[in-house]
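User: Structure with zinc ion, C-alpha cells only please.
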Amino acid sequence: MKAAVLYKANTPLEVVDVQQQGPQAGEARVRVKAAGVCHSDWHIMNGDWTLPLPMVLGHEAAGVVEETGAGVTGLKAGDHVIFSFRPQCGRCLYCSIGRSILCDGHPSARWAMLDGSTRLKRDGQDIFQMARIGTFAEQVVCPAEMLVPIREEMPWPQAALMGCCVPTGVGAVTRCASVEAGASVVVIGCGGVGLNVVQGARLAGARLIIACDLLDNKLDLAREFGATHTLNARRDDVVARVRALTGGRGADYAFDAIGGEATTLQILDAIRPGGTAVIVGMAAMSVRAPITPYLMALQEKTLKGTMYGSVRPNLDFPRLVDLYLDGRLKIDQLVSRTYRLDEINEGFAALTSGQVARGVVVF
Ligand SMILES: [Zn+2]
Ligand SMILES: [Zn+2]
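Assistant:
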C-alpha cells in the first residue's frame, strides 16, 4: 500500500510502500478516492506544528469503505464516506452538548488509533497517521466514528473538500458566528477556507460580503463565490475601506481565514463596537497577537476561535453534500488542479505559491 510519509520537517513527502494492519474492533478500512492538499498539512511539513514523525499526512478526503472491524454499526463495505478529522465518542460533555469537535472522550494521541496503537509500519518502524486518518494513502484504517456516509452521486474531488475546507469555512459562519440575514461580513484570506467563509456568508443571507486577499486571482474567485466587494491588501487600507463601506462603524462580523498576528488584529479593528471577530485559519503554534483589552471592553467586542467550523459532522456533511448537489454550494471552482499521489510535492509547491484554491490528489 502506497502512502506519502513525512520523515523530517522541511523535507519533501516520500511516497513509499508501507505495511498496513487490518481494522481492529471499532475501526474500518477505506479505499481513498480523493484527498485535498491543505495548509494544515503544510504546517507540519514546514515545522510550524511539531508532531511526532514519521507520519502519513492528509486529513481532507473521501473514499469507499472496504472492510469494517468488530462491533462497527451504521457503516458497511461499499459505503461512500467523508473522513472527519475529529473523532466523536458520543458520550463526553462536548459530544453531549452538540460540540463534538471538542470531544475529549479519547485520551490517546491524535496521530494514533483510539487504543493508542498504530496500524502502519515500514521497515519495522511505526508510522503515525495525521489526525488519526492520514489520507495521503491508497487505503486508510481509522476509527469508524470518523467516517460519515454520504450520497453516492457526490463526485470524489468535491467530496474530499467536504472533509476540511468546506465545513471549516461554511461552519465558521453558520455554526460558530451564526451570521444573520442582512449582516455585514469581512473575510481575510480567500484560499480554500476563506472562499467557503464567503459562500457561507452568502448562504446565510449577508448583505455586504467584503473579501480581502493579496492576490487578484483569489479576489476574482471570491466575487464568483458571493463577495459583494473585494480589497487587495497590497493596495487598499483594509480597515479604512471596511469602515467606509459600513457607514463608518465597522462590520458586524470579520473572519480571519489565514491565522496570524497581523490578521487577528485586523479582524478586531474591522468590526464595529459589539461586533464579532472569528479566528478560523490555524496559525503556527508560536504566534502571539497583542490585543488591546481596554478597547475590547469599551467597545464590547467579541473574539472567538473556531475549529473545523464548529460543525457537527454527522449532520452537516450530508447537508453540505445536498446543498452542492442542489447547485447551491460551489465546490467545482475550488478544485483548481488534480495530482497523482506521486506528484504530491508539486501540490504543496502550488499551495505555497498561491496558484490554486485547492489541489486534490486523486487515486
Ligand atoms: Zn485542512
Ligand atoms: Zn466525545
